Amino acid sequence: MRPRTDTNQAGCIYDLYAAFGCDFGGDGWYEIMRGLCKELQEACNKEPGAKVIPMQIKEKFGSLQFYFHAENCSEELNDELYNIVNKWEGISERTCMECGAAAVMRNNGGWVSPLCEEHYAERRR
Ligand SMILES: [Zn+2]
Q1: Residue 5 has what pLDDT?
Q2: At residue 9, what are phi and psi to the nearest 5 degrees?
Q3: Most buried by CB count within 10 Å: which residue of 40, 50, 63, 72?
Q4: Where in the chain are the domains?
Q5: Distance (Å) from CA 67 to ligand 1 centroid
Q6: Cα of 118 from ligand 1 centre, angstroms
Q7: Percent of the chain residues topping a pLDDT of 90
Q8: Is residue 125 very low, low, confident or very high in pLDDT (cuts 50, 70, 90)?
Q9: 40 — pLDDT class (breaks 50, 70, 90)
Q10: What is the per-residue pLDDT across 73-121, written as a single tens digit (0 to 9) for each?
Q11: Distance from the CA of 115 to the center of ligand 1, in angstroms?
């Protein structure tokens, strides 16, 4: 695990982990959270005062769910923010939750999660 108090340039990534206690295990989606937050921040930088307030971050049916509230955004920017979130939620469905490798959705005892071959085999043991 990476230190939860560490921050990136935008000062958001690990704070989000800590503040919202992402309920998915493993570090596999770390790069997804990082990429998602970076793109949201870059989009917000285009409009003064624009910001994204994350409401809830969780995993549902093997997909990242990032619920947020946008403030001081034009309709155009708002659309862009939703598109960014949709894009990364889609990427999460193809990314192993444990290690970040390419994955497909696995059904393991009714629990659906994107896992690579290795971690799928591990869970079935
Ligand atoms: Zn894996």
Answers
A1: 45
A2: -60, -40
A3: 40
A4: 13-95
A5: 25
A6: 6
A7: 66
A8: confident
A9: very high
A10: 999 999 999 999 999 999 999 999 999 999 999 997 888 999 999 999 9
A11: 5
Q: Return the closest-CA partner of residue 85 out of 100, 102, 63.
A: 63
Interval between CA 121 and ligand 1 midpoint (Å): 10
Fold of the domain spanning 13-95 = GMP Synthetase; Chain A, domain 3 (3.30.300)
